[in-house]
Amino acid sequence: MSTGRDYAALLKEVVDECRPYAERGQLPSYIPELRKANPKLAGIALQTSTELYEAGDTRVEFTLQSISKVFSLLVAIEERGPEAVFAKVGAEPTGDPFNSIVKLETAEKKPPNPMINAGAIAVCSLIPGATVEERFGRIAGLLEGILDRPITIDEAVYKSERDTAFRNRALAWFLKEINCLEGDVEEVLDLYFRQCSILVNCADLARIGMFFATKGINGAGTPLVSARAVRLVSTFMVTCGMYNGSGEFAIQVGIPAKSGVSGGILGVVPGRFGVATFGPALDRKGNSVVGISMLKRLSDLLDFSIF
Ligand code: GLU
Question: pTM of the prediction?
Answer without folding.
Answer: 0.96
